[in-house]
Design brief:
The complex is a heterodimer of chains A (115) and B (270). Chain A is an alpha+beta fold. Chain A is built from 3 helices and 6 strands, in the order αβββαββαβ. Chain B has a 12-stranded antiparallel β-barrel with strand order 1-2-3-5-6-7-8-9-10-11-12-13. Classes of the chains: A alpha+beta (115), B mainly beta (270).
Chain lengths: 115, 270
C-alpha cells in the first residue's frame, strides 16, 4: 500500500519511465533507475503552488520544505505547480507546517491534499 | 583629475543589479528570495569610454568586479548589499600620460519590501516592491564619493508563462552638495524563456533571452539610454548571465560617454 502511494505520487507529477525527477538534495535523478529500496516509501501529500516563476523558485520552496520534520522526499513540477511529498510514516509533516513553508517561500498555496 | 564625474558615471553603469531569475539582468526585480535564503552574485563589468570637452581628452577602460549578497529576512522583505571593486586605466590624450587606479567604489545597501503580490498561476506572478537604502562612501580615495546618498525607488515584475516583464525607478538623492547631481534611473526589461517550452519534473533548468532599456537622468541635465540584450542560463542552484549594453542616446556634459558595457555574472543560491 505504501509503495502504491509512492507510485501514485509520481504519477501525479506526470512522471513515466522516460522521465526523471529532482530528489531532495541530490539534483536530477532518473526515477526509472531508482529501485523500490532506494525510493522512500510512506504516505504522500500533494500541494499545488502558484507563483513559482523560475528554477530558483523551486529551490526556494524546496529549502523551506526541507526544514520540516517528517518529509522524506520532495518532487516539484514547476510547470504545473504540483509538489509531491513522501512523508515519514510515523511522524508525518503536518498540513500547517507545509502551508507555513509555502508562505515563507513567498508563493501562494492553492490547495493541499493530505494522505 | 575630477574623480567625482567618473565615479558618478560608473555608478550609473551598475547600481546593484540583483536578480533571481526570469527577470532583468541590469537592475533589481520585484522577486524575493525565501525567508532565510541567500543569493551571492559575482559580476564582472567592462566598459570603454571617452571623456572629451574643452579641458580634457581622455580614453577610459574599466573593469568592475562586484559582489552582491541578497538575504531574505521575510518572504516580503529582502536585504541587498553590494561592494564594487574597480580597475581603471585612463589615457590622457593631451599629456600622453596613462593613469592606472584600483579600489573600492561606493557600496550600496538596500531594503526591498513587497507592497503588492498576486500569484495567478503555477508560473504566473505580479509583484510590486519598494526599494530604499543608501549609497555609502567606501573611503577609497580613488573611487569613493564624499557622501552618503539615500536611494528610493519602485520596481514591478510580472511573469506569465514564458514571458516576463520588469520595470523600475530608482532615485538617488546626492548629499555631496556642489555640482553633484541627483539621479533618476529608469529601466524596463522583457524576458522570454527560450527553453524549456514547458517546465516539467525533469526540466528545471531554463534559458532566457533578455532585452532591456536602461536609462538615467541627472539633475545637471545629463541623460543617457542603453539598449541591453542579454542571456541567462538558470539552474536550481546557480545562474550564468551575459549582457551587452549599447548606448542609443547620450546627452552628457559633465561625464564620460561610454562606448559599450559588457557584463558577465554568476549567481549562487544558498
Amino acid at each position: 500500500m505504501i509503495i502504491l502511494h509512492s507510485v501514485l505520487a509520481l504519477g501525479l507529477v506526470g512522471c513515466h519511465e522516460q522521465q526523471s525527477a529532482s530528489m531532495q538534495g541530490q539534483g536530477q535523478v532518473d526515477l526509472a533507475a531508482v529501485d523500490d529500496e532506494a525510493m522512500p516509501t510512506g504516505p504522500v501529500a500533494t500541494m499545488w503552488i502558484k507563483g513559482m516563476a523560475c528554477p530558483f523558485c523551486a529551490t526556494n520552496l524546496e529549502g523551506q520544505l526541507e526544514k520540516i520534520e517528517g518529509i522524506k522526499k520532495i518532487i516539484i513540477d514547476l510547470g504545473t505547480g504540483k509538489v509531491v511529498m513522501v512523508l515519514d510514516s510515523t511522524t508525518p509533516a503536518t498540513k500547517e507546517a507545509m502551508a507555513k513553508a509555502v508562505d515563507n517561500s513567498g508563493f501562494t498555496l492553492d490547495r493541499i491534499e493530505m494522505p | 583629475m575630477n574623480h567625482k564625474y567618473l565615479v558618478g558615471a560608473v555608478i550609473a553603469a551598475g547600481c546593484v543589479p540583483m536578480v533571481s531569475a526570469q527577470e532583468a539582468i541590469n537592475f533589481n526585480s520585484a522577486l524575493q528570495p525565501a525567508k532565510g535564503a541567500m543569493i551571492v552574485r559575482q559580476q564582472l563589468r567592462y566598459f570603454e569610454a571617452d571623456f572629451v570637452n574643452a579641458m580634457m581628452n581622455r580614453d577610459i577602460e574599466q573593469y568592475q568586479l562586484s559582489t552582491t549578497i541578497v538575504y531574505g529576512v521575510e518572504p516580503d522583505l529582502t536585504l541587498i548589499f553590494n561592494a564594487p571593486y574597480r580597475f581603471r586605466k585612463i589615457d590622457d590624450n593631451l599629456s600622453g600620460v596613462t593613469h592606472r587606479d584600483e579600489g573600492f567604489a561606493d557600496m550600496t545597501a538596500l531594503v526591498k519590501y513587497q507592497l503588492y503580490h498576486v500569484d495567478t498561476g503555477p508560473t504566473d506572478t505580479a509583484r510590486l516592491n519598494l526599494l530604499g537604502g543608501m549609497e555609502v562612501r567606501s573611503g577609497d580615495s580613488n573611487f569613493s564619493s564624499d557622501s552618503y546618498d539615500p536611494l528610493l525607488g519602485l520596481v514591478y515584475t510580472q511573469s506569465h508563462g514564458r514571458h516576463g516583464f520588469d520595470a523600475a525607478l530608482l532615485w538617488k538623492f546626492n548629499t555631496a552638495g556642489g555640482p553633484a547631481p541627483d539621479r533618476l534611473r529608469y529601466d524596463v526589461a522583457y524576458v522570454y524563456r527560450l527553453q524549456p517550452e514547458q517546465y516539467t519534473v525533469d526540466k528545471l533548468t531554463a534559458l532566457f533571452a533578455v532585452l532591456e532599456l536602461n536609462g538615467s537622468y541627472e539633475t545637471n541635465g545629463d541623460q543617457e539610454l542603453f539598449l541591453s540584450p542579454g542571456i541567462q542560463y538558470v539552474t536550481r542552484k546557480w545562474a550564468l548571465e551575459a549582457t551587452v549594453q549599447l548606448p542609443i542616446w547620450q546627452d552628457l556634459d559633465a561625464r564620460m560617454e561610454r562606448d559599450f558595457i559588457i557584463g558577465l555574472s554568476l549567481r549562487l543560491h544558498f
